[in-house]
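Can't paste images in this forum, so I'm doing it all in text. The chain is below; anyone willing to post the predicted structure tokens underneath?
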Amino acid sequence: MNWYQLSVKEVFEKLKTSENGIDEAEVKNRLEHYGPNKLAEEEKISKFKIIIHQFTSPLIYILIIAGIVAILLGEYIDSGVIFAVVVLNAIIGFIQEYKAEEGVRALKKMVVPRARVIRGGKEKEINSEELVPGDIVLLTSGTRIPADLRLMHTIELRTDEAMLTGESIPVEKTTAPLKQDKLTPGDQNNMTFMGTIVVSGRAKGIVVETGGKTVLGSIALDVKEIGPVKAPLQEKINHFAKVIGIIVVAASALLFVIGLLIGESVKDMFMIAVAAAVATIPEGLPIVVTIALAVGVSRMARQNAIIRKLHAVETLGSTTVIGSDKTGTLTKNEMTVKLIYDGRHSYEITGSGYEPKGEILLEGMPVEKKDRKNLLQVLRIGLLCNESDVYEEDGQYKVDGDPTEGALIVSAMKAGLSRETEEEHYPQIAIVPFESERGFMATLHKHGDRKFIFAKGAPEKVLDMCTEDMSGNEINKKEILHIAANFAKEGLRVLAFAFKQAPHDSEELTCRDVECPDLKERLIFAGLQGMIDPPRPEAIEAIDGCKKAGIRVVMITGDHAVTAKAIAKKLGIADVGEEVLAGREIEKMDDPELFEKVKNISVYARVSPQHKLRIVQQLKKHGHIVAVTGDGVNDAPALKSAHIGVAMGRTGTDVAKESSDMVLTDDNFASIFNAVKEGRIVFDNIRKVTFFLIPTGIAAILSIIATIFLGVPIPYVPAQILWINLVTNGLQDVALAFEPGEKGIIRRPPRDPQEGIMSRILVERTIIVAFIISAGVVYNFVTELNAGETLEKSRTVAVTTMVFFQFFQAWNSRSELQSVFKINLFSNPFLFYSMVAAFFAQIAVVYVPALQWVFRTESLNVSDWLQIGLMALTVVFVVEVDKWIRRRRIAKS
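Text version of the structure:
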């Protein structure tokens, strides 16, 4: 259907709809007929593919080959253990990967695109998937268009259709039908298409195609959702595991050769070398990284931060600068008008929030009716040059729309003006919506036989369009701006109001009508209103926390410089004498100058989106890891440029959300701070797992090499090495991913993003621990042999010693510097219960006859257990001493 050729009336008839939209019953019928408004279905999770994926690891190849060789050599018990390990590893891997896939899909569903529609004559917001042909959709600046629409009403609408046409210049839209045949989408100027973006203006359109029948849908029929992208951290871990794997395979090959040289059989040494490689390669590490990231994502979601890109979890922990918007993020977004200037007097308004209770006072006294004419005109303009609404719900007054406009409605209501009455006397004919580039909004109204233009905006902008005040006198711009500056010094956001009579035949309104260069037709200045958006108490606390964490917070706002400074002082971002850098000054600076300025500036005011982008880029050049917040379509470049782009969930545009790495569901700065904390915990936990796995793996090979050089039998058979790997690394490594954050984690300075998985402290400690464990195992093993015990009994002691060393090493790994004795035993119940399970599994291997036969073990007596326990405790003692020394060094520095 060539919808662009039809008039709006013909479209209404074809789709059996009207300006009031369709009712809910009809929506249900059409949803069943047309289906949901979404593109090609996402491919379902293939369980078979996930199972196959578990057998694609080089480690698994080694195990399978070893298992087959063991069968050929007649070692059926060893082959059984090897294949049991392969199957168990596949089961654990399958469960974790399947859960991770489901988690990622569930996460995607948390940020569902929304659309504003008119249904049954009422405006409402719905999930865009619920749109059907015949729905009436409202478009505003920054919206991603949810379906193919035939436009019925536009106000300076321009859309970015680059994704469909490749044309980078925004397209101006109209509503008139086009008669040409076979027009491409790029030439259909009365249509907007699914997936394109509203750059500026407003519009109302009729949904004509949804889902796969849209222009985008026809292109994307064969397109499937891209799978979750690996985080850089996962890539680092995979690379780290491969490097370790190569080293271990080389060491195992060397072990095999040494064994042959001292007379061991090829069969025994082959199995020992394979088992040693399996025990040492940290095959659990990539899985644990995924789990740790998933745990972090889940914890952040509970803190009102939805992670859209996995690398954000890693990067958050090393953030050094947070560049935040002011309104709604650092403040409550509950604007209240406090001061009004009507060209003659300044008035005070009592009350706060959106409840229309309060008085207008002049020098502390109520204002008499005869003195209110000018005052009421200021309030009337604020009330009618307005796209928002104040309503009562569950006993609370709320604003549907912009909080600033909500405050203007409330201030007018406090003076006794009724919105319904005023709209009846001044019906709106046309509107020029507010856009940040132009700095004002205007409306055209009919009043009796006359027509008026009402305008509101930034004082500087509005005053530039005015010549006289309501008394007919020439305005004193300097004096008015001085009054505006005094309002702003008290932390108030200031708006100026103006009006003029329009030609009686005016039916449309454009920017040129408002900004008329003819002095005789310029606006009349009406007055100022100053309102405050109080800081969030939790934001004040979070900023204090950021300072202690070594994170610098900068405010980047479009608000007045003095207002920004006043709020920044209350929040603790800026000191009394600190400089504020304004957009006009940034405009004059080149990048080297701005590079020097961003070192010390904490408050940026009256900035444009381009300024915001430049600020972010210069902070990055200083080596900072930058998180930046944004909610508008124009914030997208800054969000993309920052290391972490943070979009607002409530007030953010679709474009801002899609450019971001993280979405705040409550638009609250404190949620960013909490997410940074969770990011640090995630990286900490990955380090803990690495420190747990690597030393114990190295110790397995070192102990085998040591016994070969000592000329005694090897301390474990292959099945025992595989058992050590299974009982210790099977659950504890995963459990460490669930470690809660350490005390003081947020008071540490941010981590250097270039720092590897292992810090210098952990590398040094890994070497110490690996030697301690291998020496302890070899000592207990040789002691048993020298005491005349059987080889099976000595190996049972060696295996159990290794298992207990790893138990205690898991506790050592819980903190880099804090004493294990100061960590609550049950703060990570998963770790505690996994160790209890592993302990009873080891008891079973030592005492259950069937398992004794499989693993070549013998029963141990009380003195054996005492010897094993005391030896394993040495690793705790040594690490505690190391921690104490390092804590002393830090305290001195």
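The two ends are 75 Å apart (CA to CA). Residues 152 and 811 are 67 Å apart (CA to CA).
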